[in-house]
Amino acid sequence: MTDSATELEAAAFRRLLAHLRERTDVQNIDLMIVGGFCRNCLADWYREAAAERGIDFDKDAARERIYGEPFAQWKAKHQPEATPEQLAAFAKAQERHG
After folding, report:
1. Which terminus of the chain is more solvent-facing, meaning fewer CB atoms within 10 Å of its CB: N or C?
2. Which domains, ranges and CATH numbers included, belong to the chain?
3. pTM above 0.70, yes or no
4. Of 34, 59, 27, 32, which Cα lies nearest the Cα of 46?
């Protein structure tokens, strides 16, 4: 991969993070239902990429990088309990992705 490709990918990733931070109305469970990933998945992928490069990045630090604030703080402000409909849709999506 060229340096310019890496720069473009990094810029796209930063834009994705900014978009997700602005769209706090989009719940993680909805992302999981539709896309099969959520903000927590991105944090896990970020942490795994760091580990592959010998960088120690714990789960909380990775989530803070993705959410833009500590996860518990973000969750308290933006993430209500999942509705029965969301839980049912999530279970159905898991069957498709599992």
Report:
1. C
2. 3-97 (1.10.3340.10)
3. yes
4. 59
